[in-house]
Design goal:
Blueprint lengths: L1 H10 L3 H5 L3 H15 L3 E5 L5 H6 L5 E6 L2 H9 L6 E5 L12 E6 L9 H11 E8 L2 E2 L6 H12 L10 H10 L2 E9 L5 E8 L3
Parallel strand pairs: 1-2, 1-4, 2-3, 4-5
Antiparallel strand pairs: 5-8, 6-8, 7-8
């Protein structure tokens, strides 16, 4: 994970500006998330600069927002105005929280850029309550337009590379194969197709 942290640490200050181009898709995503987190205890993984957490915190009871990058967490803390929102640096593969601690876990735009995303899902399952909800929106790059492929090429040159390239349906299938029932999904129009997935634990 050291290489990945270095990229995100170096680009933490530019992240919010980079994400502005997808503001409309994110606004739509916030509308989908707020009812799910209403009065709930929430864990967010790969929070980055806290874009999502800061937009939904008023609806939630409490949010623990985490990231592997120290610089991202420093950026996130800079303008945190809510006592209900706590930022910390954590490894999503080895979380310090007890089993079944959270009502909702959010991992946005991260599962496609980490090695062994299925292991991250196992750890999420551990800290999520049995009746809890996983919200996992992810850019689904495979099958995107020529312009999207050009963007992906230049992102790779900058040090950002994808570990998983999914179409929207492949991504939803990946979640199902790893023990999740997708109860709601939508493809939001962004720089790359953004597949919103809302899941619950599959019954064994």
């Amino acid at each position: 994970m050291k290489e990945r942290k270095t990229f995100w640490d170096k680009n933490a200050g530019r992240y919010d500006r980079f994400m502005r181009r997808d503001r409309a898709a994110y606004e739509e995503m916030y509308k989908l998330i707020r009812p799910v987190v209403k009065a709930k205890t929430v864990l967010e993984l790969a929070t980055g600069t806290g874009l999502i957490a800061k937009q939904i915190v008023n609806a939630a009871a409490h949010i623990e927002a985490t990231d592997a990058s120290a610089e991202m967490i420093a950026e996130a803390k800079r303008d945190n105005r809510s006592a209900k929102l706590h930022f910390s640096m954590q490894d999503m593969f080895r979380l310090p929280y007890a089993d079944k601690s959270f009502d909702v876990v959010i991992v946005s735009n991260a599962l496609h850029i980490v090695p062994q995303p299925e292991k991250a899902l196992q750890e999420i399952k551990r800290v999520l309550k049995d009746d809890g909800v996983l919200i996992a929106p992810t850019f689904t790059h495979a099958g995107n337009s020529f312009s999207g492929k050009v963007k992906a090429f230049f992102m790779k040159l900058a040090g950002f590379s994808l570990h998983s390239r999914w179409t929207s349906e492949e991504y939803l299938c990946f979640l199902r194969q790893n023990g999740w029932t997708v109860r709601k999904s939508a493809v939001l129009k962004a720089s790359f197709p953004l597949t919103y997935a809302e899941c619950v634990k599959s019954e064994v």
